[in-house]
Amino acid sequence: MAISNVALIGGTGTIGAPILEALKKSSFNTSVLNRQSSKSTYKDVNVITVPDDLNTPALASIFKDNSIDALIIAIKPSNVESQKKLINAALEAGVQRVMPADFGSCDSADAKTNELMPLMGRKKEIRDYLISLEGKGKLTWTSLITAHFFDWGLGGGLLRFDVRNRKAYIIDGGDIKFSASNLDFIAHAVIKVLQRPEETANKLLYIHGFYITQNELVAVLEKVTGDKFERISQNSEEEIAKEAPKVLAGDMEAYEELVAVWGIVAGDWSKRETFANNLLGLKEDNLEEAVRNVVQGLSA
Asked: In sequence order, what are the residues at sequence separation of 6 or more whose Cβ sits closer than 8 angstroms to the Cβ of residue 296?
């Protein structure tokens, strides 16, 4: 199996944009799929216009005409039907690898996670669908579970840290080890997957760029900013009990809060059987450098 021609859909999104930049710097021939009515524009990359409804026969023809070997899906994970259309077209066209929209903070393979946050179950639904297609045609798949989007979340106040106001919401004492990844680290991991098609075929892989505690992170934040952070103690069980019913009622703000907490208390990828940093040749990022970049970005 050899991958040369890669197509990405969702190239302007939170994770799609850095993946696109990494692909453009790689040796892969990269194309972006852009829906006909989309206002998105792209520089220095081949753009392929696709039907708004992602019609499977039309997509399959497009994939064949462009000799697409791998498809990366970076649209919202909740768009299950769109993902299935893309996957069906890939299967029909003889695409070798699909990477579904499984990137994110929490483990969509974990039953408790799916119970608390049913939206995560949609990621599992897509992965189960891909598993059901194994052995049919050339299609294989790889899912990357990336842990918290570290730089994006820290800067946006989504990781129980309010950097602008120097507040840290500390869960269960702050010494729980959890995984996290910068967006560029995730994009780099995608490239590594495509460079190792045989070793990564039909696998759910866990990666992280950081393996830290909240207390370690507070210490680095205080060093970088020169300011003392207010520490607000929180109990994970109480926070989950408060937010989970709101999530089930469709409250997306509560969903973000629950993801932030659960991504700490149940976000240690290092002990997962398919933890793949070594397989992919990934080295953890420098925490102080990452924090400094976030702080400088907030000050700009």
From this structure: none
Rounded Cα distance, 11 and 9, in Å = 6
Evaluate whether 255 touches 247 at the Cβ level (below 8 Å).
yes
Q: How many H helices and E strands in the chain?
A: 12, 13
Which of 272-285 are b and which e, b meaning 16 or more Cβ less than 10 Å from the residue's Cβ?
beebbbebbebeeb
- Residue from 173, 263, 185 nearest 15 by CA: 185
Helix (H) / strand (E) containing 154: helix 150-155
pLDDT single digits (tens) 214-262:
999 999 999 999 999 999 999 999 999 999 999 999 999 999 999 999 9
Cβ 29 vs Cβ 5: under 8 Å = yes
CB-based burial label for 195 (10 Å; 0-12, 13-18, 19+): middle
Burial class of residue 255, CB neighbours in 10 A (0-12, 13-18, 19+): buried
- Whether residue 138 contacts residue 123, with contact meaning beta carbons closer than 8 Å, is answered with no
Q: Which helix (H) or strand (E) holds 58?
A: helix 56-65
Long-range Cβ contact pairs of 272-278 (< 8 A, separation 24 or more):
272/107, 272/206, 274/203, 274/204, 274/205, 274/206, 275/205, 275/206, 275/207, 276/200, 276/203, 276/205, 276/206, 276/207, 277/207, 277/208
| pTM (2 d.p.) | 0.96
Q: What is the sign, positive or negative, of the torsion defined by CA atoms of 133, 71, 269, 159?
A: negative
Q: Are 145 and 107 in contact (CB under 8 A)?
A: yes
For β-strands 178-181 and 210-212, DSSP reports them as antiparallel
